[in-house]
Amino acid sequence: MTGSTATTGGADAPAPAKDRAPDGNGQGPGFMAGPAGRLLGLVVALGLLCVVGAVTAPERFVDIDNVLTILRLAAVVGVVSIGMTFVIIGGGIDLSVGALVALSSVWATTLATQAMAEDFHWIVMVFTAIAVGAGAGLVNGIVIAYGRLVAFIATLAMLVSARGLAEIIANRRTQIVQDRGFLDFFTGDPFGIPTLVIIWALVSVGGWILLNRTTFGRHTFAVGGNAEAARLAGIRVQWHTLKLYVLSGVTCGIAAVMLMARTTTGSSTHGTLMELEAIAAVVIGGTLLVGGRGTIVGTVLGVLIFITLENVFVLNNLSSSVQAVAQGVIIVLAVLLQMRLAEGRGGFGWLSRSGSGSGESSSGGPVAAGTPAGSVSGGSSVPGAPAGDRPGAGPTP
């Protein structure tokens, strides 16, 4: 059964030569369509941004303090993006991450929580933030996986509700972190590296291991590539989908702790538009929005590209409006490029595709390199079987 490729091969494993989609000249998709080529492209893009920054603002951009500033800014959204990567690879979407960061930060900085932290240890604030994020993620997972609500709608509702609850708890006021032990620990820089950057690195390494070296990661690729094939292979699709959203909530809780330390506050305004930044970083990093393919390394590079671009704009005194336009253009170009590479073609044949393109077939035909059967169109990999619906993916037309 062709769906087994999604279960055992991983999304970025190169497809066998006989399954690779030919281009217009009858050749394979080429190096750039593979995972190594995509990562190389991201490294080149980041390098070009650094060159532009060094040329346009030579003294300020290459300053070590500016480099550390880029890493600190990237750390918070980077942690959220790791959780977002798992959700999107699994075929979902989470628009509530920014609001969950705000809610977690507010709940962890209430007078009651800080009083408990003062009596016991500041770790209480950390556990509170992570527990709130995980709890909200659990609600998302239940509604999407078992309530069969479309992920976009469910997480959009959570975005509004969590932000409103944060405002109610904080009474629309900014709450100050009083615990010096908490601030001293998270704002330190052991070995000259900010603690926030170390946390991001640890989360990224943990995410890479979880995605690439565990059964959980293989199931994530399988569910995102073809939910019906995953179900037939014995994977509990609904249960796994729920765990993905809990994982996303946990990363939001960790990010809230980092943001509390960086700003010394808990606020209902924290994390505003962070969901867009996280999704943009994940997409730029090469993760397919339809699920079934993605890498943690690509997401880390995507975050660095996004934050470095903002830094170059700021150093050159460009307005925030110009930044927003440039970021939007980059996101669109990244999606178009990843679709072209996923198709494994030299041209733009995917623009006229309906249902399935010439590079893949829902009945087990050839697929693009690195793409599980059915991951592009969502069709079933079993000949004659109906297309499998992922929880939260909406009805199949």
Automatic annotation (TrEMBL):
The chain crosses the membrane at residues 39-57, 69-89, 95-113, 120-143, 149-170, 191-211, 242-261, 282-307, 313-337. Residues 1-28, 353-397 are annotated as: Disordered. Its main location: membrane. Residues 1-16 have a biased composition (Low complexity). Coiled coil: none annotated. GO terms for molecular function: transmembrane transporter activity. It holds the Pfam family BPD_transp_2. It comes from the Bacteria. This is Monosaccharide ABC transporter membrane protein (CUT2 family). It comes from Blastococcus colisei.
